Amino acid sequence: DTAVSQTPKYLVTQMGNDKSIKCEQNLGHDTMYWYKQDSKKFLKIMFSYNNKELIINETVPNRFSPKSPDKAHLNLHINSLELGDSAVYFCASSQGRYSEAFFGQGTRLTVV
Amino acid sequence: QKEVEQNSGPLSVPEGAIASLNCTYSDRGSQSFFWYRQYSGKSPELIMFIYSNGDKEDGRFTAQLNKASQYVSLLIRDSQPSDSATYLCAVLPSGGYQKVTFGTGTKLQVIP
Q1: What is the pLDDT of residue B8?
Q2: Quick check: B97 and A103 CB within 8 A?
Q3: CB–CB of A43 and B102 under 8 A?
Q4: Residues in chain A with pLDDT < 50?
Q5: Is A100 within 8 Å of B104 when comparing Cβ atoms?
Q6: Would you list the DSSP string of chain B?
Q7: Which chain A residues have a beta carbon less than 8 Å from that of B99?
Q8: Would you state the pLDDT for residue A100?
Q9: Beta strands A53-56; A43-50: pairing state
Q10: Is the minimum CB–CB distance between B18 and chain A shorter than 8 Å?
């Protein structure tokens, strides 16, 4: 039973489109995250969401918006996709803000 | 200066040898330190975490932390070909996981 699952695993779309990636965790964690890993494998946190408190990395464009319907889900919406958005996006969760994060399997987004 | 620095490698070691992976960080207020292993095309998975100065051992893995010198290392004893992966160092400042910074990773190759 997958602890952190995200869908889809692969996403190919055209520039200018809007897309969403879904994430669900069954670990009972109270904090969820979205990460971006670029082509050089650099992993950077985009958002963290804890008890309805959203913390945004200031470098993330406002075309990206996380939405959390409940504690177990944190979806990522991306508007007006750009070529530079191509990357692998990982969802993760942790118990509290100071514990290790557990990662989903990743979504490889390709913008053409 | 990068916040978290790792040698990108590849670090090649023969099977059965000790692999030593190093990470330096710039924020003296950092509280927690994590090592993740990432196989190609897969998500990061937690190997070790360490909070206090000194050594922490778990099976073939030993994490070492020296806050005065601002470095953390991971030793892998009796290296196996299955250990071949990229190892990511993650550093948490006092602000919690929303401020986590990952290094770019060290690629380890264990030669049979």
Answers
A1: 87
A2: no
A3: yes
A4: none
A5: no
A6: --SEE-----EEEETTS-EEEEEEES-TT--EEEEEEE-TTS--EEEEEE-SSEEEEETTEEEEEETTTTEEEEEESS--GGG-EEEEEEEE-TT-GGG-EE---EEEEEE-
A7: 45
A8: 85
A9: antiparallel
A10: no
CB of B11 closer than 8 Å to CB of B108: yes
Model confidence pLDDT, tens digit, residues B41-92: 999 999 999 999 999 999 999 999 999 999 999 999 999 999 999 999 999 8
Of the residues B23, B39, B100, the best mutation for testing chain A's interface (the one with the most A CB atoms within 10 Å of its CB) is B100
Place of tokens 């380890």: B108
User: Residue A31 is nearest to which of B46, B88, B97, comparing CB atoms?
Assistant: B97
Residues A7, A76 contacting (CB under 8 angstroms)? no
Retrieve residue A35's tokens: 């990460």
Question: How far is it, in rounded angstroms, from Cα A82 to Cα B8?
Answer: 28
